[in-house]
């Protein structure tokens, strides 16, 4: 059970802070809800306390793991399915997992593909969503503003691209 002030991640929406736990009546039934404020996008989300575990609500990673996430972004892209449909499903499953390392892989791989071949509209939307989820968690974990977290992610992706270009030139 989470408490007010906890920093949590809601898969497919990103990281936020529980600002209240309230009882509300919806469709004639009373339930307790976490009221979560999402700093990136200034959205508020209500999550039934009884469904928190099933929907993947989890604590934000500790600050000590931020570098591990950045290392994933900087690593070279991993091979992806050539078929758009398969690739999209694999990436969607990674996002649904709520695992920040898998979200970072999606951001890294789709960013690399965007530079090399471009992305379809669906994959572009997926990349934007994955970036928002990643940036929101990194910002809360590292105590950064949204802009600082965005710059951090962009620097890692640029370094990854430069490393790959250097590797290809040396081969």
Walk me through this protein's architecture.
This protein has 171 residues and is of the alpha+beta class. The chain folds into two domains: 53 residues, Thrombin, subunit H (Beta Barrel); 108 residues, Up-down Bundle (Methane Monooxygenase Hydroxylase, Chain G, domain 1). It contains five helices and five strands. Strand 2 and strand 3 form a beta hairpin. The longest helix is centred in the C-terminal third of the chain and has 25 residues. It is globular, with a radius of gyration of 18 Å. It starts with 6 loop residues before the first strand and ends with a helix.
Quick summary of this structure?
By secondary structure, the protein is of the alpha+beta class.
